[in-house]
Amino acid sequence: MELIVARNREDLVKVRHEGTVALVPTMGALHEGHRSLIRQARVRADQVVVSIFVNPLQFGPNEDFSRYPRTFEADLDVCRAEGVDVVFHPSAEDMYTPDRQVSVSAGEMGRVVEGAFRPGHFDGVLTVVLKLFNLVRPDLAVFGQKDAQQLALIRRMVADLDLPIEILGAPTVREPDGLALSSRNRYLSDDDRRVALALSRALRTGAAELAPAEIRRAARAVLDAAGPELTVDYLALVDPATFAEVSDDYVGLAVLAVAAKVGGTRLIDNVTLTLNPA
Ligand code: AMP
């Protein structure tokens, strides 16, 4: 089947739905992580829709919106190779009219951890994801665990706003040396990349411990050892559903999350681990 490219909402409404529809929202510059989401969607759905939209609403004034990588033709090749049925690639003008007023609030959960460093980010994410859900009308949607707080907030939005959409989480795809794949990795110089490995190394080292205090200490030691080229925004050990910091006697699954800047590039990563197992 020929790949359909819908460049605006009028194009999209002309696309006929066939059976189960899966949506994979992305900002493009597609890599193996995105491919794994598309494959997960392909297994579950008759029709796979990939959206490619660099959403201005989720970038802060001093963030990388204007220089975010845009590689649309290469992204289409990836989508063709993965058997995607529809690519939705709207313009910002098509998504957001100048008279718009109403948006989604991520609540308190959108203001902690990653949200504390990116005010308004998760409101922008949830607003565009809800719009994409309404425009595409999928039965299911796939998101990466790489953006663990985003995934948790999307699950929260679906529950709180009664959206009839199944949310699937996909594991983080990494380079052989541990670096989590990200569209922003292309900003990294060779030296930056070596420094950036401290993120995944810190998470692995932390995950080898069992108690919260030891996990935090072990991971922090690795980040500190990376030197002044690494500026850590946060290292957080949180409940995966709420992103609230866990207490020392917490039992069960938790997320160890980190964000840091390397040479002007901000990277995030996380792992899921089990705390204080019996
Ligand atoms: P982005 O294009 O960065 O907005 O990401 C689009 C989707 O791909 C999100 O659901 C991300 O969590 C997911 N994603 C990004 N990087 C990875 C990765 N390394 N492994 C798995 N999923 C990823």
Keywords:
binds adenosine monophosphate; 6-stranded parallel beta sheet; alpha/beta; 278 residues; Pantoate--beta-alanine Ligase, Chain: A,domain 2; 35% helix; Rossmann fold; single chain; 2 domains; 9 helices
Topology:
Blueprint: E1 4-6, H1 9-14, E2 21-26, H2 32-44, E3 47-52, H3 72-81, E4 86-88, H4 92-95, H5 114-117, H6 121-136, E5 140-144, H7 148-160, E6 166-170, H8 190-207, H9 212-225, E7 230-238, E8 252-262, E9 265-275
Parallel strand pairs: 1-4, 2-3, 2-5, 3-4, 5-6
Antiparallel strand pairs: 7-8, 8-9
The structure holds adenosine monophosphate (AMP).
Taken in chain order, the helices and strands follow as EHEHEHEHHHEHEHHEEE
Oligomer: single chain
Number of domains: 2
Helix tally? 9
Number of strands: 9
- Uncertain runs: none
Shape: globular
Average residue pLDDT: 97
Strand content: 15-25%
Percentage of residues in helical conformation: 25-40%
Question: From the helix content, strand content and strand pairing, which structural class follows?
Answer: alpha/beta
Word description of this protein:
The protein has helices spanning 9-14, 32-44, 72-81, 92-95, 114-117, 121-136, 148-160, 190-207, 212-225, and strands at 4-6, 21-26, 47-52, 86-88, 140-144, 166-170, 230-238, 252-262, 265-275. Helix 6 packs across helix 7. The chain is an alpha/beta fold. The protein is globular. The protein folds into two domains: 4-170, Rossmann fold (3-Layer(aba) Sandwich), CATH 3.40.50; 183-269, 2-Layer Sandwich (Pantoate--beta-alanine Ligase, Chain: A,domain 2). Adenosine monophosphate binds next to helix 2 and strand 5.
